[in-house]
Design a protein that fits this description.
Blueprint lengths: L26 E2 L3 E4 L7 E8 L17 E9 L2 E8 L3 H9 L32 E5 L2 E5 L6 E3 L6 E4 L15 E3 L4 E7 L6 E6 L5 E7 L11 E2 L3 E6 L2 E3 L1 H5 L5 E3 L5 E7 L8 E5 L3 E11 L2 E9 L15 H4 L2 E8 L5 E15 L11 E7 L7 E8 L5 E5 L4 E3 L3 E4 L9 E9 L4 E8 L7 E6 L10 E5 L2
Antiparallel strand pairs: 1-5, 2-31, 3-4, 3-32, 4-5, 6-7, 7-8, 8-9, 10-11, 11-12, 12-13, 14-15, 15-18, 16-17, 18-19, 20-21, 21-22, 22-23, 23-24, 24-25, 25-26, 27-29, 28-29, 29-30, 30-31
The chain binds fe (ii) ion.
Length: 471
C-alpha cells in the first residue's frame, strides 16, 4: 500500500484519530500560552513515537512498526520553541527513496509477497521510535531490537546508530538505567536465540566496559529491567517469543502464565553465575519505575498487571482491560533471608512510570505515571503521583475527550528536593482537534497546569518522553 493518509480515519486503531501520523517537519515559537511558562524550566522536553509513512498493509499495521518521529519543545527563560523531525535511519531512507514500503512489518513477516529489502540493507528497520536516553552528553533514540540512534540537539537531526566502537554485541533496550551518582549506564538486549539476554555497562565516558550473557530458559519479551546502586534486576516474566510458533500459524508473542515469574538479582558488574533468582507472583510488568537498596533488601517499584494482550497491544477482541492494565506494585527482596514480600501500592491503573531521573537507581519517594482510561486501550486520561512515604496517590485528570501520553519529570533549575520540578506532557483534545503541551507543578498536581501551550499543529499520540536539562 502506498503512503498512509495522514489525519484520515482508518479501520486500524493505531492509524485512526490522533494515532494517525503527521508528515510535515516544523520549527516554530508561535504557540499561544495560557498561564506562564516558568523561567526555572530550562531544557528540552522530548517525545518520540511511531509515525508511519509507507506500510505494507493498513489492516496488519502494528503500532510497534511506525517510523520514529521526535516532537520537542525547548524551554528557555520563559519561552518555548517547538520542532518535530523524522528519525532518518537507513530503512526509513530506503522507503523514502522508493516512495513505497520496503519492510513488511511484524504482523506480515510470513506474508508470501516477495521481499523488497535490497541486498546489503539491514533486514529490519531501526525505527528508534520508543524512548530516549541522555548519557555522556549524548542523546540516544532507542528501539529495543536495534542499536541506539544518536540524535543531535537541538536540531533533532539523525547522526545515526552506534555500536559503541564495535563493543555493543546485542540489541539495546529502550529502557537503559543511568546512575547519575556514578555516571554509568546499564543496558541489556533480548533476542529470539540463546543467549536470550545479554547485559552491558557503559561507563561515564561512554565506553562499554562490561558484557555478560544472562541465562533464562526461553526467549521472552523483556521490555524493561531495574538497577540499584549495587545490583541489576532482570524480570523473567512469561511473555514468550517463539518464531516456530509463528511459522505454524500461532502468535509470535504470547502470555504463558504456566512458566511463572521470577526476578534475577546480580551485582552491577556480575556475570551469569552470580544471578540469584527469586520467584514472585505470576504477572506482567511492562515498565519499572525505580529500584534501590535498603539494608539487606532490594526494593523494586513497577506497574504490574495480572495478564496481557500483547499481540493486540490492548485492542484485541475480548480484551479485559481490568486484568491487563497495570497498577503500581512493590517487591521487597531480602538477600539475607531469600524472602520476597510483594504488594499493590496504588489502586489507580497506570503505566509510563517515571521518577526524577537524578535519583534513578537510588531511593525515591515519588513515582509519576500516566493514568489509564479503563474503557479504551492505550489511552491515558491523566497523570498521577504516588508518595511512598504516605502511601497516597494524587491525580490530575485532563478532562473529557482529552488524552495524553507520558509525562516526564523536569527538575527546576536550582531545585532542592526530589519533587521540586514540573511534569511536562502532550495532551490531545479529541473533541476540539487540538494538541497542547501541559506544564504541571509536581508538588501540586491537583491544581492543574501552571502553563498550557496551544500547539499550532497536531501532535500524534506516541510512546515515551524525555527531559534534557540545559541549566
Ligand atoms: Fe517502554
Amino acid at each position: 500500500m502506498p503512503q498512509i493518509q495522514a489525519g484520515e480515519p482508518s479501520p486500524n486503531f493505531f492509524l485512526d484519530g490522533n494515532f494517525s501520523p503527521v508528515f510535515e517537519e516544523r520549527d516554530t515559537d508561535e504557540m499561544e500560552v495560557i498561564g506562564e511558562i516558568p523561567d526555572d524550566l530550562q531544557g528540552h522536553f522530548l517525545r518520540v513515537g511511531p509515525n508511519p509513512v509507507y506500510v505494507f498493509s493498513e489492516a496488519a499495521y502494528h503500532t510497534f512498526d511506525g517510523d520514529g518521529m521526535i516532537h520537542a519543545i525547548e524551554f528557555s527563560e520563559g519561552k518555548a520553541r517547538y520542532r518535530n523531525r523524522f528519525i532518518r535511519n537507513e530503512g526509513f531512507e530506503l522507503e523514502q527513496a522508493r516512495g513505497d514500503w520496503v519492510y513488511k512489518g511484524m504482523n506480515s513477516l510470513m506474508d508470501p509477497a516477495p521481499s523488497r529489502v535490497p541486498e546489503g540493507a539491514p533486514n529490519s528497520k531501526n525505527l528508534a521510535n520508543t524512548a530516549f536516553a541522555y548519557h555522556n552528553n549524548t542523546l540516544y533514540a532507542l528501539h529495543e531490537p536495534s542499536q541506539p540512534t544518536v540524535i543531535d540537539l537541538p536540531s533533532l537531526s539523525t547522526v545515526g546508530p552506534t555500536d559503541f566502537n564495535g563493543k555493543l554485541e546485542h540489541p539495546f533496550t529502550a529502557h537503559p538505567k543511568i546512575d547519575k551518582q556514578s555516571g554509568e549506564m546499564m543496558t541489556y538486549g533480548y533476542s529470539f536465540q540463546a543467549p536470550f539476554v545479554r547485559y552491558s555497562v557503559i561507563d561515564k565516558e561512554g565506553e562499554l566496559v562490561h558484557t555478560t550473557p544472562i541465562t533464562i530458559p526461553r526467549s521472552i519479551f523483556m521490555h524493561d529491567f531495574a538497577v540499584t546502586e549495587k545490583y541489576t534486576l532482570f524480570l523473567d516474566f512469561p511473555i514468550t517469543l517463539d518464531i516456530g510458533r509463528a511459522i505454524s500459524g500461532g502468535p509470535a508473542v504470547d502470555f504463558e502464565p504456566q512458566y511463572g515469574s521470577r526476578i534475577g538479582v546480580m551485582p552491577r558488574y556480575g556475570t551469569d553465575a552470580d544471578v540469584r533468582w527469586f520467584d514472585v507472583e505470576t504477572g506482567v510488568v511492562i515498565h519499572t519505575a525505580n529500584a534501590w537498596d535498603d539494608g539487606d533488601e532490594v526494593v523494586l517499584l513497577a506497574s504490574r498487571s495480572n495478564t496481557a494482550d500483547i499481540a493486540g497491544a490492548g485492542t484485541s477482541e475480548g480484551n479485559n482491560l481490568q486484568e491487563n492494565q497495570g497498577r503500581l506494585h512493590e517487591w521487597r527482596i531480602n538477600l539475607a533471608t531469600g524472602s520476597v514480600v510483594e504488594r499493590s501500592v496504588s489502586e489507580t491503573p497506570c503505566d509510563f512510570t517515571r521518577v526524577n531521573d537524578d535519583f534513578a537507581c537510588h531511593k525515591t519517594r515519588f513515582v509519576y505515571a500516566g493514568i489509564f482510561n479503563t474503557e479504551r486501550a492505550f489511552t491515558f486520561d491523566g497523570v498521577m503521583k504516588y508518595d511512598g512515604e504516605t502511601g497516597a496517590t494524587v491525580e490530575f485528570r485532563y478532562g473529557p475527550d482529552r488524552h495524553g501520553g507520558e509525562a516526564v519529570f523536569a527538575p527546576k533549575r536550582g531545585g532542592t528536593s526530589e519533587d521540586d520540578g514540573y511534569l511536562v506532557c502532550f495532551v490531545h483534545d479529541e473533541a476540539a482537534h487540538q494538541s497542547e503541551c501541559l506544564i504541571i507543578d509536581a508538588q501540586n498536581l491537583t491544581a492543574g497546569p501552571v502553563a498550557t501551550l496551544i500547539m499550532p499543529f497536531r501532535v500524534p499520540y506516541g510512546f515515551h518522553a524525555g527531559w534534557v536539562g540545559t541549566h
